[in-house]
Amino acid sequence: MPVSVGPYGQAQPNCFDRVKMGFMMGFAVGMAAGAMFGTFSCLRLGMRGRELMGGVGKTMMQSGGTFGTFMAIGMGIRC
């Protein structure tokens, strides 16, 4: 099966690579959003120190995983 070639001579990424790239981009955006929302919500609840870092980290991982999953699904549909 021939490999499709882009306009500048490089090979196009296959579908799995696009899904991986979509997940990583979504994970990064979700982590940034989770950092902002997690910090504000944890500070509003009165968390400090180690508890604050744990709460913010948990929120960042949750939102990053969720948004990354949806971006990966979207990139898979586009393939």
From TrEMBL:
The chain crosses the membrane at residues 23-43. It comes from the Eukaryota. GO terms for biological process: protein import into mitochondrial matrix; protein insertion into mitochondrial inner membrane. SMART domains: Romo1 (SM01378). One of its GO terms (cellular component) is TIM23 mitochondrial import inner membrane translocase complex. It is found in: Membrane. The keyword Oxidoreductase does not apply. Keywords: Membrane, Transmembrane, Transmembrane helix. InterPro entries: Romo1/Mgr2. Induces production of reactive oxygen species (ROS) which are necessary for cell proliferation. May play a role in inducing oxidative DNA damage and replicative senescence. May play a role in the coordination of mitochondrial morphology and cell proliferation. Belongs to the MGR2 family. This is Reactive oxygen species modulator 1. It comes from Electrophorus voltai.
